[in-house]
Amino acid sequence: MHVLFYLPVVTPWWFDKIVAPIIRAAARDAQVSVLVPPLWRGTGIGAAQLAACADLETVDWYILDGDDHPRLRVSAAGEDALFALVEQINADITLCRSADLDSAARFPGIVRFIMEGAAPPFATDPTAAWLAETLFDHAMMPRLAPPRRAALDAAFRPRWDAAHARFARADRHAFLDAAGLPRDKRLIALPLEYEHPEMFFGQHNVFASNIALVNHLAEQLDEDSVLAVTNHPLNERHCDNGPLLATIAAHGGKVRLVGATRTPGDATMLLAKHCAGMVVGNSKSFAGCAFFSTPMLRLSRFRTGGWMHAYDDVAAFVAALRDSTARAADQADALSWFAFHLLDRMFDPADPALNAAALADRAACRAADALRAAA
User: According to the CATH classification, is domain 147-334 in 3.40.50.2000?
Assistant: First the structure.
C-alpha cells in the first residue's frame, strides 16, 4: 500500500500533534510520501518538524518550495508539475490537510481530509482526528443497521446523560445577567469563525468576513431580537478585534458581544442552550444545536445532515423563531450522531495500534451513497 500526505495548509502545531503521528502510523506497514510546502503565513513546516521526523528513513519527503508555493494554500490549479508528481506516486490513499477541494478531486485513489474530531459540548483530546470525504459536511451519518445504532447509543448514553445533567444546572437568568444580555429579547446566537491569515479554509465561507456576516444578520432582525455574538478564542488571542468591536457598537444594542462570564461552562454552548436559535457557517459549534435541539440557520456551501432540520434562509428562520414554529434536531438522532462520530469515526493519531491498514479501513469506508441518502 502507498499512502500520500498532501499538506499545503498544515500548521506546525497540527503537524507536530496530529499529522506527524499519522505519518508514523502509516509508515509502520506502508510506503509513505509527504508533499508539504515550507513555512509561510503560519502554514507549512520548517526545520524543526523535519528534524523531529528524521528517524522516518523510509518516508519520501517532497518539499514544495517553488517560488509560487504560497498559491498552493488556495489552489494548485495550473501546477502541472505537482499533478504529474502525484500521478507518478499513484498512491492508494491520499490524506490531505488542504483547503483546495478541486485539486484533491484530481488525485488518484481514495482521498480523505484530516479533520479535527471535536464535537462540543463533549470534551475531546485536541489532537483527536477523523478522515472526512470533504471539508465541512456537518452532521452527516450513514444509515446504521438497527443493532449497530442501538449498540452505539447504549455505549455513548452515559456521557450523553452526564452532559445533559451538567447543563441542566445552568440557570438562564444568571447566564444572561453575567453575559450582559437582556432577558426580554429573542436571542439569536452567532459563534464567529477563526479569521487569522493562516486560516485558508475561510475561502469556503459564504461571507467575506465575520463583520460582513454580522452586518447581514443585524439588518434583518426586528426590534424584539438581539444577535448574541461569541468570538472565536483564537481571534481573541491572535487577531486585531478592533474593527469587529466597532461594528458591533455601531448596531447599538441589537448586537452584543458575549465574553467570558462567571457562569460555569463554555459561553457558546450556554448560548446554544439559552438562545431561541443559532446561526452557523462552517463552525463545529453546530454540534451545540444538535445537543440542545436548538433551531439552526446554516449559511454554508456544504451539506448538513437532514436530521438537523437546518434552515438556509435568514428571513424564514427569523419568521419561524418569531412564530415559535422553528424546527430543530430530534434528540434520538442527535444521540446517535454523537455516538457515531465520537465512538466510530474519531481516532487518536498517537494510538500505537494505528497503522496504514487501520487508516485504510477508515478511509475506504465508502459511506458517500448512504450519507447522501441520509441528507
Answer: yes
Q: Does domain 2-117+346-374 fall into CATH 2.40.160?
A: no
Helix (H, G, I), strand (E, B) or coil at 62: strand
* Residue 355 Cα to chain centre, angstroms: 24
Q: What angle do CA 190, 112, 100 make, to 5 degrees?
A: 65
pTM over 0.70: yes
Residues of the chain with CATH 3.40.50.2000: 147-334
Burial pattern 87-116, b for ≥16 Cβ within 10 A else e, equals eebebbbbbbbbbbbebbeebebbbbbbbb
Using CA atoms, how far residue 232 sits from 71, 252, 260, in Å, is 26, 22, 12
Task: Tell me the torsion sign for CA atoms 108, 101, 119, 328.
Answer: negative
- How many CB atoms neighbour CB 295 within 10 A? 22
Under a CB-based contact definition with an 8 Å cutoff, are residues 317 and 295 in contact? Answer: yes
Counting every residue written for the chain, the total comes to 375
Q: Helix, strand or coil for residue 45? A: strand
Give the model confidence (pLDDT) of 245-283 as tens digits: 999 999 989 999 998 666 656 889 999 999 999 999 999
Neighbours of 255 (CB within 10 A): 21
**d(Cα 350, Cα 20) in Å, to the nearest integer?**
9
- The string of DSSP letters for 123-152 reads ---TT-EEEESSS--BS------HHHHHHH
- Rounded to whole angstroms, the Cα distance separating 313 from 32 reads 45
94 beta partners: 4, 111
